[in-house]
Give the backbone structure.
Amino acid sequence: MRPIRIALTKGRLEKDTVAVLEKLGYDCEELHNKGRRLILHIPGANMEVVLAKAADVITYVEHGVCDMGVVGKDTIMEHGGSFFEVADLGFGRCRFALAVKKGEDFYSGYAEKTIATKYPNVTRLFFAEKSMDIRVIKIEGSVELAPLLGLSDGIVDIVETGTTLKENGLEIQEEVAPISARLIVNIASMKMRKKELEPIISQIQSAVTEAP
Ligand code: PRP
């Protein structure tokens, strides 16, 4: 049987995820010296680490080619999918927020409003819950540009430190949802490889709930 595979989101969540694995005693030497390799072995454990983009972590876990994954709640909320979400890992903390140009009120006036975002599903759901019709324009990155260029009345985006908003003359109008990294597990793996997965999941759960 192939090793247990865990898909990690490359980039922002990577360092903290590796720190959790090391705290559990896994040898992450290959991850520290990975070069351009995307599948890394954990010596002494029947485990492989796969490095992928956030949305792809969900795809690989949903299809069962990876048993577990670490991905942000932002991607889970936008992408959806069938898997178990078994732990809030407590890192990668930030939030979704509705932001506008400083001093503006998104809710003033009667004209239909336009939102620019990398997260159209999250945005549509947020305004649907308010029974408010809005136009959504999908942007791939640096969404803060859209209201500055006059493309939209506001943005729905991730805010971590708030620096990007501040340095571009924008401010939060309203919080949308808190975000943090989550551990997800493939539904079939949870049954078929229960004996191997359960101890790993509970180790991770206790590692992230213990005081640092
Ligand atoms: C994210 C997000 C904001 C920024 C927020 O972008 O979309 O632009 O980080 O962080 P801050 O509140 O700490 O300033 P990212 O760096 O992922 O790049 P992107 O906009 O090109 O997607």
User: Anything to note?
Assistant: The chain has nine helices and eleven strands.
